[in-house]
């Protein structure tokens, strides 16, 4: 471990991971952004899903100033964030076979849409089944995960596969198994997770690529503006009216 305070060490670790992502995932980010742009241009809808703390990067791109207005959150009751009580129930639900299919079949997702599935480990039944079933329905799937888990852990899905095995595009966050960047002799367990920082950066990079790709094609990207800048509410109202049939958090 390098010298410096724990804060310095964590920030150095996060910066290192972001540099790796920039250098090693550039092609995948471009492909994911292009997939989103293709979906928007062809009239499809965009959705993002994550369970537990993986829901945070999903929520970060929904109804977000500077983000695509068409990105909707696919919510699975009991697994979005840690709002369920007890919190361990959310972890248990991620391992339930059949839940993802029931959610998708009850959702507005359809052939021609795109779904971003975020799962750090990619090993639980919920993200694996969701990716499998989504693709069977004709939905394009972008997986955001740590590929390291597929070689260092066992799948918890009956197929023995991981999220990465059922995606049109995979973004690898490079997070080490365990998601803890620091150790100290005086602390009995590794600590300081960086997955949220890196995964959120991947998500925003992908969305930025989509917006720029649409603009390059002569299509105005359906972006939201901050409601705290003059004219922001009027701008957003125009976008909501134009794309209202593809936005599900507004009704």
Automatic annotation (TrEMBL):
CDD domains: SIS_RpiR. Belongs to the UPF0309 family. The keyword Transport does not apply. Keywords: Isomerase. Residues 36-220 form the SIS domain. The keyword Isomerase applies. This is UPF0309 protein E5083_23935. GO terms for biological process: carbohydrate derivative metabolic process. NCBIfam families: PRK02947.1. GO terms for molecular function: carbohydrate derivative binding; isomerase activity. InterPro entries: RpiR-like_SIS, SIS_dom, SIS_dom_sf, SIS_GmhA/DiaA_subfam, UPF0309. HAMAP family: UPF0309.
């Amino acid at each position: 471990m390098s010298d410096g305070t724990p804060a310095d060490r964590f920030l150095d670790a996060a910066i290192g991971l972001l540099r790796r992502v920039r250098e090693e995932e550039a092609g995948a980010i471009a492909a994911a952004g292009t997939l989103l742009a293709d979906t928007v241009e062809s009239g499809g809808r965009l959705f993002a899903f994550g369970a537990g703390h993986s829901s945070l990067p999903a929520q970060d791109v929904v109804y977000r100033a500077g983000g695509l207005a068409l990105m909707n959150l696919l919510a699975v009751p009991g697994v979005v964030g840690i709002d369920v009580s007890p919190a361990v129930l959310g972890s248990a639900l991620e391992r339930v076979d059949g839940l993802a299919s029931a959610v998708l079949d009850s959702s507005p997702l359809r052939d021609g849409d795109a779904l971003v599935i975020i799962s750090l480990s990619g090993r639980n039944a919920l993200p694996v089944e969701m990716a499998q079933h989504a693709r069977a329905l004709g939905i394009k799937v972008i997986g955001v995960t740590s590929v390291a888990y597929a070689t260092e852990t066992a799948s918890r899905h009956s197929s023995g596969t991981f999220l990465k095995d059922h995606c049109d595009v995979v973004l690898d966050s490079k997070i080490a198994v365990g998601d803890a960047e620091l150790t100290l002799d005086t602390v009995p367990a590794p600590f300081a997770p960086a997955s949220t920082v890196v995964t959120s950066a991947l998500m925003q990079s992908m969305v930025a690529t989509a917006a720029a790709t649409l603009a390059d094609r002569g299509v105005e990207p359906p972006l939201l503006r901050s409601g705290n800048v003059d004219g922001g509410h009027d701008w957003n109202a125009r976008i909501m009216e134009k794309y209202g049939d593809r936005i599900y958090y507004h009704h």
